[in-house]
Amino acid sequence: MSTKVIQADEAKHLASKKLQEAGLISEHAEKVAEVLVHADLRNVNSHGVLRTEHYVSRLNAGGINPNAHITFKATGPVTGIVDGDDGFGHVIGDVAISHAIEMARENGVGMVTAVNSSHCGALSYFVQKAAEANLIGMAMTHTDKIVVPFGGKTSFLGTNPIAYGVPAKTKRPFILDMATSNVALGKILQAREEGKEIPAGWGVDENGATVTDPNKVVSLSTFGGPKGYGLSVIVDIFSGLLAGAAFGPHISKMYGDLDKKRKLGHYFCVINPSFFTDIDEFLEQMDRMLDELHEVPPAPGFDRVYVPGEIEQLHEERNKERGIEIAESVYEFLTK
Predict the structure, then answer these.
(1) Which strands make up the sheet holding 109-117, listed edge to edge?
(2) Domains recognised in the chain with CATH numbers
(3) Which 8-state DSSP code applies to residue 98?
(4) Is residue 74 over pLDDT 80?
(5) Is the confidence at residue 1, as pLDDT, over 80?
(6) Nearest to 303 by CA among 294, 292, 312
(7) Measured by CB atoms within 10 angstroms of the end CB, which terminus of the chain is less buried, N or C?
């Protein structure tokens, strides 16, 4: 598969332009493109501008409101609900985390659920925003069923990702963003796009057997067996039930029924460390922890110990200079 390297600013402009041509208001198109390029910079291309074509299809079919009026309702000093009016999850999530940040600054904690939303992209974008404000961020969202519960043959759960962002004093923030499935569905889709095989354990066929051909994948598996399964259910409770949204098999499909509003839920929590401990000491201890993790001798076959999220951060620093790599077919869609 041929690829093309383009600068992040060009990718953002092209994605935003494509979304606006499909009727999305410019302010929202800019934010969606920003979140997509954030993922591409981190080499998480499964959540990058690759998704633009699908979003355009959903806009054209009426499955996303191009002029969403997003509202926030405070339900207490540290709680609130964002109603996304069936708009783009990237924008809705940004509104929700921003309100959670403000509440955490003032009252120590901020928890916000979002309803009537859609796919929100890489959760790392939102928790990084909290970490850059010297706050701890947490985010969860559910997705339509594609993952088999541990011991099950057919899918019930989504990839149901969870993310944390923690600030440090001089180091990059600690960013953990992971699906509770072994991999995100986007990685399977990317392998199909690139014509590559996938590792065993990523996906299963209709009989629940592991396959390496991405085209034969019917369902995904949770990471860590019953442990990932348990976390996946928790994510559905927080971002689904707590938000008053659907769960598991009752969530509308991302890649089907393009004309239907998805009504997804998200959960965001922001914690202000200064309400619990001395903020400078906390940030210095984070630096120390990250340094000491790096000092752990590597096991055979490894060159060093990385902190979670560090590899993506190194990609981001490099790709800001050299540009992001996208499939030629994606570039052709963005420019045609």
Answers:
(1) 71-76, 79-83, 109-117, 264-271, 136-141, 162-166, 174-178
(2) 69-277 (3.30.1370.60)
(3) H
(4) yes
(5) no
(6) 294
(7) C
The tokens describing 81, both together, are 């609900």
DSSP 8-state assignment for residue 157:
B
Task: Determine the average pLDDT of the residues in 183-202.
Answer: 87
Give the active site residue among 28, 47, 99, 119: 119
Angle at 272 between CA 270 and CA 278, to 5 degrees: 155
Give tens-digit pLDDT for 9-34: 999 999 999 999 999 999 999 999 99
**What are the residues whose beta carbons fall under 8 Å from the beta carbon of 37, sequence distance 6 or more?**
8, 11, 12, 15, 48, 49, 324
The pTM score is 0.94
71 beta partners? 83
Distance separating alpha carbons of residues 66 and 20, to the nearest angstrom:
9
Q: Are 176 and 36 in contact (CB under 8 A)?
A: no
What radius of gyration, in Å, describes the C-alpha atoms of the chain? 20
* Structural contact between residues 266 and 93, judged by C-beta atoms closer than 8 angstroms: yes
Active site residue 250: no
pLDDT at res. 2: 87
Mean pLDDT of the chain: 96
Burial 262-285 (b: 16+ CB within 10 A, else e): bbbbbbbbbbbbbeeeebeebbee
Please, where are the H alpha helices in the chain?
8-21, 26-41, 52-61, 89-107, 124-131, 185-194, 226-236, 279-294, 310-322, 328-335
In the predicted model, what is the mean pLDDT of residues 66-71?
98
pLDDT tens string 218-262? 999 999 989 999 999 999 999 999 999 999 999 999 888 899 999
Residue whose C-alpha is closest to residue 38's, from 60, 5, 68, 11 = 11
Taking alpha carbons only, the member of 158, 180, 175 closest to residue 224 is: 180
Average pLDDT of the residues in 287-292: 98
